[in-house]
Specification:
alpha/beta, single chain, eleven-stranded mixed beta sheet, rod-shaped, 9 helices, 13 strands, 45% helix, LysR family transcriptional regulator
C-alpha cells in the first residue's frame, strides 16, 4: 500500500462514522470519498465498512487495521515535520575537527552561541593536528575543521583568524632584550617543538628551510604546556603559534621573524566542496566567525 491519502480517508471516516461529515472534514465531495474508500478496499481485498440499518460500522478486518493505520499516519506526519526541520537546519548532527587549543579558545564559546539558536542539532568534536584534520575533511570524517590547508581551492573556506609564530625564551636568554627573535638566529639553538602535522610545526620547518638554518630539537610534543614547562626549566626555546599558545601561562613570548617580517598563517573553517553538508553548517560557520571576531576585538582593544 503506497497511498497514505487513502489511509487518511479511512481513518477520518472511522473516527466520525459518517461519510457526509468525514467528507466535509476532508474538504472533498462525499462521492469522491466513497470512491477512495472503495479503491482502498479493492487494494486490501476486504471491506472496511458495513451498514447496520442506517448506521455505518467497521468490519472485523477494519477494527484490526484501524489502530495501526492511525499510528502509521502519526509517524508519517512526525517524519514530515522532522524532515522539514532537518531541511531548515533545526535538527541534525555536525562533526567538527580542531586542535585542542582551538577547541578550548574558539569552538567552546562558538558552540554556546550556536546552541542558543540550534538546540536540537547534535555536535561532536574530533581533536587532531592540522594535517589529520585536513584529511578528515577530505574523506568525510568531519563536516568541518578549523585548519590551514595548503591548497585553499580544494575546500570551501571561511577565514577566522591569523596565527603568528611566537618564541618562548628560557630565563636569562640574551634574546629577552630584543623585540623579536629572527629565525636566522636559531642555527644549532635548542628548540622545543610540537610534533609534525601541527600547523605550528609546519611554520617552524618552512621558516628554517627558507633561512637555511637547522636548530637542535630537544623535544617534540603534542602539548604546548609541556614545551613551556621545559622553557621555564631552562631547556630550550619553545616555538608556538599564537593560536596554540592561548591559555599558556608564562613570560611574554617574542614575535618570530623571517627576513625581518612576522611569520604568519591564515586559519580558516574548511569544509569539503564535493560533499553534501547539513543545512545547519552555515549557521555554525557564522557563529565561529563572530566568536573569532569578538576574540580579536578583545585582544586588540
Amino acid at each position: 500500500m503506497r497511498d497514505l491519502r487513502k489511509l487518511h480517508f479511512f481513518v477520518t471516516v472511522a473516527e466520525v462514522m459518517n461519510l457526509s461529515r468525514a467528507a466535509e472534514a476532508l474538504n472533498i465531495s462525499q462521492s469522491a470519498l466513497s470512491r477512495q474508500i472503495q479503491a482502498l478496499e479493492e487494494e486490501l481485498g476486504f471491506a472496511l465498512f458495513e451498514r447496520i440499518g442506517k448506521r455505518l460500522a467497521l468490519t472485523v478486518e477494519a477494527e484490526e487495521m484501524l489502530p495501526r493505520a492511525a499510528e502509521l499516519l502519526e509517524r508519517a506526519a512526525a517524519l514530515s515535520l522532522r524532515a522539514d526541520a532537518v531541511a531548515r537546519g533545526q535538527i541534525g548532527h555536525l562533526r567538527i575537527g580542531a586542535t585542542a587549543q582551538t577547541i578550548a579558545s574558539l569552538i567552546a564559546p562558538a558552540l554556546t552561541l550556536f546552541r542558543a539558536s540550534h538546540p536540537r542539532v547534535e555536535v561532536a568534536l574530533v581533536e587532531g593536528p592540522n594535517r589529520s584534520l585536513i584529511e578528515l575533511v577530505e574523506r568525510g570524517g568531519v563536516h568541518l575543521a578549523i585548519a590551514t590547508p595548503e591548497d585553499v581551492g580544494a575546500f570551501h573556506t571561511q577565514p577566522l583568524f591569523v596565527a603568528e609564530l611566537l618564541a618562548y625564551l628560557p630565563p636569562g636568554d640574551v634574546g629577552h632584550a630584543a623585540e623579536a627573535l629572527p629565525v636566522e638566529s636559531l642555527a644549532d639553538a635548542p628548540v622545543l617543538l610540537l610534533r609534525r602535522g601541527f600547523m605550528t610545526r609546519d611554520l617552524v620547518d618552512e621558516s628554517c628551510r627558507h633561512a637555511n638554518v637547522r636548530p637542535r630539537i630537544v623535544l617534540e610534543s603534542d602539548s604546548p604546556h609541556a614545551l613551556v614547562a621545559m622553557v621555564e626549566a631552562g631547556h630550550g626555546i619553545a616555538m608556538l603559534s599564537s593560536s596554540a599558545a592561548r591559555g599558556v601561562r608564562s613570560s611574554p613570548p617574542k614575535r618570530v621573524t623571517l627576513g625581518g617580517q612576522p611569520v604568519r598563517r591564515q586559519v580558516s573553517a574548511i569544509w569539503n566542496r564535493a560533499r553534501h553538508h547539513s543545512a545547519a553548517l552555515p549557521a555554525l560557520v557564522d557563529c565561529l566567525q563572530r566568536t573569532a571576531q569578538s576574540d580579536g576585538d578583545r585582544r586588540t582593544s
